[in-house]
Amino acid sequence: MAIGVGPFDLDAGVSQTVGFAYVAGADEADFLASAAAVSGFVVADETGPESVTEHLSTPAPNPAANTASVTLTLDAIESVRVTVLDILGRVVAVLHDGPAAAGVVALEVDVQGLTPGTYVIRAEGETFGETQTFTVAR
Q1: Which of the listed ranges 46-50, 102-106, 112-116 does the model predict with the highest average pLDDT?
Q2: Which H or E element spans position 32?
Q3: What domains lie within the chain, and their CATH numbers?
Q4: Starting from the edge strand earliest in sequence, which strands make up the sheet with 129-136, in order?
Q5: Residue 52 CB partners (closer than 8 Å, separation 6+)
Q6: pLDDT interval class at 55 (50, 70, 90)
């Protein structure tokens, strides 16, 4: 099942960031329950990209063969959970779970035990939720 909305019309010179979620389910009810559980999306008003604070950096290198690094930037001390999920939404690693200090927190993903493919890093805090994707390649 795919859900989409459009069309999207933008004026010349205007950019728009679009997020996607890959959601799976055994049937329509399971799909809808999985879709409802997806977090990490920021809905911004039309004031522009300056209204959105990015907390989770893009993983690097991407694709990764041994490790991938990300940073988490926080304005204040906050309880945060950072997980790595496979394409089916299963948690394959927990990078951080608990209080995190204000500032930049460096995290590494050991991908050597992961099957090549696409993965999602999800950071969920008290005041935000964000995701980034990366690829494991050999």
Answers
A1: 112-116
A2: helix 28-37
A3: 53-136 (2.60.40.1930)
A4: 91-100, 78-85, 117-125, 129-136
A5: 17, 42, 44
A6: confident
